[in-house]
Every structure is written in structure tokens, then in C-alpha cells.
Amino acid sequence: MASVNLTINVVDINDNQPTFGAPMQKVSFPENSPIGRLQPLRPATDADIDPANRIQRYRLTEPTDTFTLDQSHLPAIRLRSNRPLDREHIANYSAVLEACDREYCAKCQLFIEIEDENDNSPQFERSQYSETLLEDIPVGSVILRLNATDADSGERAQVVYSLHESADPDLAETFEVANNGEIRLRRPLDAQVRAEYRFRVVACDMVATFCSGDANSTAEVVLTVEDINDHRPIIESSTNLYTLRTSRVFDAERETIVTTTIKCRDSGSPPQSSFRVVTLRILDVNEFPPVFSPRVLHMQVSENSPAGLEVAKLTATDQDDQSQLRYALLPIPHSTGPTYDSNSDLGSDSSSSYGGGDAGANAGINRHFVLDPNSGFLRTSRVSLASCLSLSIFL
Q1: Per 3-state DSSP, what percentage of the chain is helix, strand, and coil (rounded to 5)?
Q2: For 207-225, what is each residue's pLDDT tens digit?
Q3: Cadherin domain location, by residue (predicted)?
Q4: Residue 92: its H or E element
């Protein structure tokens, strides 16, 4: 038997397309990078074996004049900057990266970010801040607010403020320049001692690369202290220099306390004013008579009832505030109605009316009943009955 060694060569064909590992890739360039700076990109892959069937070229399908591709060391590729980069002008770019073999192409979105550098100094919105202060401004008051901005981003754009190194040391004891730009008063002012303060302030970013030297990073502060009329008038009630008069009618049932404010102003410059709150208590006067409810009481007293039996509770109301009512049995003119005959005892099955017509009639009811002056309870004092008695009392 004979044998033959055969060598079979499998010829690669272009049956695989280029692919990127992700649909988008990100690359960063620091701003102010020199022209020609190269940043590597992740290349595409091709599963074909024959180099002729693998990736042959790359291109930016949405090219810009700012960037081009460096393909001098394939399969590695790099992105080249063609002009100065300024994040404050353009913060990012986008393009489409395309990889192609002899027949097929693949695309990847390219996001180009420009990294911020601390290349901007804080800029004050104005070169001078002026303010006029009254000399009695309270310690701790915010006098004014500085404002500067920084075109950088992040901490490089966060601005803090301070007194310039050239400032008089006495200023630091009088004024506080806070990091947030607020200038506060630390101690009292006196226009007779010093009527004007001039000093410079400086704005720095948090990284503190730019803190002085730039004219726009400093500003002048001019504070003028204005003399004032220091003393306010004092309102005293014992001087008899003014009179308080009523302008309307008061009703104690509706308002028991009334407050008013007295203002006193002097002729100083600027004028000073004082205020005094006056509280007036409205005193009630006895302007309303008591009113009974009901006006007529009908009662029955059984025979042999003990003395002290509660017969009725007389109730009256008075619209006056804090009125104190007292009850009494008084004579009533005979024309008001029938009265009890004081010369006879209460007989059986009798029916009587009390209203009082004269002293004798009033003595009759007082002989059998007693009225508590405070509570209004009407009670029996003695009963001489043979049977039930019906009573009517007219109030």
C-alpha cells in the first residue's frame, strides 16, 4: 500500500466585518494642549486571518478641522489635535470614527472632551464698590456683597474673597471679608473718628493658582461713614406735653382692651423717632338692666312641705360685662297684677299670684318664702297648707 502526504491550504476569504468593542468611545484632551498632541483610540477588530482581508483604513466621517487621525502605526490609531483647544470656548466635540476592510465598514461614535485647566482668573463684575453707612449700623451687619466670576469649571471656578495684602491692618479689625464675598462690620463705627475707609479686596479661585497680579482679580471698596442724629426723643407720660383724646365711642362688651401707638419725632438730620404703645382698658358702665327669663313662673307647693324646700330658680341675665346680680323680693305697684293677701294663710287647693302691690302684700310672700340674693333660689320658709298650692309669680 502506498501513501501520499497532502497539504491543504485553506484560503481566507473576507467573510468578517470590522467591529468596535462599543458603539461609542470617549477621548480627552487637556485644554491649551500643544498643536499635534496625540491621544490613542481603541481600534476596531476583524476576525479574518489574511491581512488583505483585515482593516485597511480609518477615517472620520464627520471630520472637523480641529482633529485628524494618525494611522501611521496601524493597527494602532491616534487622534491628533490641529489647533489650540479652549474649553471655555468649546467644551467638547463629536465625530464618527469609521473602520473599513476591503469590502465592509464599521462605525463608532467618538466623543472628544476638552479637560479644564486653571487658565482663567476670577473677574470682578466692577472695579469699585461704594457704600454709605450710618455710623450706628449694628455690628455683624452685611455692608455689601462682592461678586466675581471665573470661567473655569469645578473648584477652579469657585471664588473666595479676602482683603488685599496691601490693606491697613486696622481694617481687618473693623471689617470682615468672608469667603462668600460678604463684607461684615466687626466693631462700631464713629464718623468723628474716621469718616471714610478705602481698601482693596482680592478674588481667588479654590485652587489658588490665580489670587493676585491680575488687575481684574482685585477691586476697590470705598465706605463712607455718615454722621447721624444719635439720640432719639424719649416719651414720658408725666410731662403733660400732649393729650390723648378719643375719636370714637367704645363698648366694653365688644372690646375690653384698646392699644394705640404714639410716635414722637425730633427735627434732627436724619430725624429720629420714638414709639410708645399705650394700652387702654375700657371700663364697663352699668348701662343694661337685668332681664328675667321667663317673665312668669308657675309653681306648685305640696302640703306639709318642709321649710327650705326649693320652689324655683329665678334666672336673670345682664349684658354688662362682669355684672354681679343680686335677687330680692320687692313691692310692685298694684296696677301690675294680682297680689297675695298677707292676712290669710295658704289654704288647701288654693291658687294665688304673687307680684306685690304694697308693703303688706310683700310681707305676705316673705312670710312663706325666702329668696337667696346670690343664687336666685326661691325656697319655703314655712308652709301652712291643707292641700296642694298653685303659685304664679310675676317678674
Answers
A1: 5, 35, 55
A2: 765 565 566 689 999 999 9
A3: 21-124, 125-235, 235-292, 293-382
A4: strand 92-100
Cell readout for 301 is 307647693
d(CA 159, CA 210): 10
Residue type, 20: F
Which domains, and CATH codes, for the chain?
24-115 (2.60.40.60), 123-226 (2.60.40.60), 231-283 (no CATH), 291-394 (2.60.40)
Contact at 8 Å (CB) between 391 and 385?
no
The burial of 23, by beta-carbon neighbours within 10 Å (0-12 exposed, 13-18 middle, 19 or more buried), is given as: exposed
CB 378 within 8 A of CB 371: yes
- Sheet of strand 57-60: strand arrangement: 24-30, 105-115, 92-100, 57-60
Cis peptide before 75 (omega within 30 of 0): yes
- C-alpha span between 117 and 33 (Å, rounded): 10
pTM assigned to the model:
0.49
Taking only the tens place, the pLDDT of each residue in 287-337 is 778 888 777 777 777 777 788 888 888 888 877 766 788 888 776 555 555
3-state DSSP of the chain? CCCCCCCCCCCCCCCCCCECCCCEEEEEEECCCCCCCEEEECCCECCCCCHHHCCCEEEECCCCCCEEEECCCCCCEEEEECCCCCCCCCCEEEEEEEEECCCCEEEEEEEEEEECCCCCCCEECCCEEEEEEECCCCCCCEEEECCEECCCCHHHHCEEEEECCCCCHHHHHHEEECCCCEEEECCCCCCCCCCEEEEEEEEEECCCCCCCCCHHHEEEEEEEEECCCCCCCCCCCCCCCCCCCCCCCCCCCCCCEEEEEEEEECCCCCCCEEEEEEEEECCCCCCCCCEECCCEEEEEECCCCCCCCEEEECCEECCCCCCCCCCCCCCCCHHHCCCCCCCCCCCCCCEEEECCCCHHHHHHHHHHEEECCCCCEEEECCCCCCCCEEEEEEC
Phi, psi at 362, each rounded to 5°: -65, -35
Cβ atoms < 10 Å from Cβ of 64: 13
Burial classification of residue 112, based on how many CB atoms lie within 10 Å of its CB (0-12 exposed, 13-18 middle, 19 or more buried): buried
